[in-house]
Amino acid sequence: MKKRTFLKTTSILAGGAVLSRMMACSPKKAAPHLKNWAGNLEYSTGNVHYPKTVEQVQEVVKKCDKLTALGSRHSFNKIADSTENQVSLQEMNKVVSLDKAANTVTIEAGMKYGELAPYLHENGFALHNLASLPHITVAGSCATATHGSGVHNGNLSTGIAAIEFVNAAGDLVNLSKKDGEQFQGAVVGLGALGVVTKLTLDLQPTFNMKQYVYRNLPMGELEQNFDTIMSGGYSVSLFTDWRNKNVNEVWIKSKVAADDAAPAPELFGAKLATKNLHPIEDLSAENCTEQMGVSGPWFERMPHFKMGFKPSAGKELQAEYFVPIEHAYEAMMAMESLHEKITPHLFISEIRTIHADNLWMSPCYKKTCVALHTTWKQEVEEVMSLLPLIEAKLAPFNARPHWAKVFTMAPDVLQSRIEKLADFKTLVKQYDPNAKFRNDFLNKNLYNG
């Protein structure tokens, strides 16, 4: 065979192999592109795979040159986006095993907190915390360091005892706490190491909770009493629209105890609510979890919204920034200085606390934080022009954004605030040497300066 003919034939064969692999990875029928929960983002591909077993996940990973895992689509940015292929584990949402002796449960990665929590309660167990919404997947929440509140409560990722994922070669990887730093690097994985298929979670005995709401706390009271107020329950949230230096509502969620006393009628000037409230006080509280001190299972009090309620698809945006808790009041005042610009475009802000952890990519790595959350009207242009102002105000406190919410922070600034970034990149290269799972979001925020 002539050299030119050989090269041409080889090229055709190689091209055919690539085309064959691409066709194998593409779903049989083209589908419309999905949108995220809020509707502010349409994903860049309609090629979404829905495996039902771990073996099928491995097959998808092996066949695809580029692939991103997709959770419950509650992210407001492109962290779960792909221009080529996505894989959803929504068909893999079962409990694998409950180890009552070890106080752990192992679940498939597509399971949502709203599906898992009642099962655990029925079997006498509870998780250490929940986020505001129960409709999110456990795996997606943990991969992005999503959190609830409580000065002694770590984010949801800190409840993981072991993790199973499929790496870029299609092999199964199992890591647990005994693997030390490898495990600590993999838990908040941002989808960069592979496709998570199973999680093992630490459990505690089930318990009942109650919650009370206080209205109209003068913001100035937080300067001297922030720690006292935020320690006033198992989980505490402050809601404000930044008007009049006022905290609209203080939600205090506590474990029920035999010696519980009646709640104080006032909390540093805030008055005890006389009816159930929505975080946005003008809205109906029908879909909110029960308040007024009524006792109920942990999973019916820790979220702000009821398990059975499916939130409507959007018309909002969310942003959130983490700062060390010692700067809580200063950071709040920095945001408050922008109230005239913020308030017209805002639904509500929530202030929460998250305990320090050892997870490399967590915003709370080695530091307890306060999280300043904003739920915006879906006025994209206006909101995206406001975020740089907020980020500049929070810059003195080395603020870090929530991985799954909107932000405009320059990549080099973000990277400079991630202590273990170099180690994380080394870990990623170990499990994904050819960047199969690296999408535009990861390229921009972790790999570009």
Main sheet record: 10 strands, antiparallel
Q: Please state the average pLDDT score.
A: 92
Q: Which residue ranges are poorly predicted, with pLDDT under 50 across at least 5 consecutive positions? A: 1-20
Overall shape: it is globular
Q: In percent terms, what proportion of residues is strand?
A: 15-25%
Kindly state the number of beta strands: 20
Distance N to C terminus: 49 Å
Helix- and strand-based class?
alpha+beta
C-alpha Rg, in Å?
23 Å
Number of DSSP helices?
Answer: 12
Helix coverage percent: 25-40%
Supply the key terms:
449 residues, 10-stranded antiparallel sheet, 5-stranded antiparallel sheet, 12 helices, disordered N terminus
Written description of the protein model:
Strand 14 and strand 15 (270-272) form a beta hairpin. Strands 11, 12, 13, 14, 15, 16, 17, 18, 19 and 20 form a ten-stranded antiparallel sheet that branches. A five-stranded antiparallel sheet has the order 4-5-9-7-8. The longest helix is centred in the N-terminal third of the chain and has 23 residues, at 3-25. Mean pLDDT is 92; it is low at 1-20. It has 449 residues and is of the alpha+beta class. The N and C termini lie far apart (49 Å). 26% of the residues lie in helices and 23% in strands. The relative contact order is 0.13.
